[in-house]
Amino acid sequence: LAGAGPFTVFAPNNDAFAKIPxxxxxxxxxxxxxxxxxxxxxxxxxxxxxxxxPQGSNRIKTIEGEEIxxxxxxxxxxxxxxEGKAKVIKTDIxxxxxxxxxxxxxx
Length: 107
Description:
This protein is an alpha+beta fold and 107 residues long.
């Protein structure tokens, strides 16, 4: 996200994108509005550090407007949206406008 922030981004890694069937990924990339919706589903308008996510289930509203579940089970963090579920595999990568958490699946 290029804005001033602050943002938290749950960023899928390359392996996460590789899980998407090629035809589906090509279709998504050919539709800017659909791609934007997916990307904004992975972003929140505030900074949320991994250590600050309370234990258990937490509902967080994304920039796209969906409420996602961020579940912390003794430091293992998962994200569930209407489109799927992802595991956070690396937390707290600081950026000039917020923080990035790497996830293993596009949700």
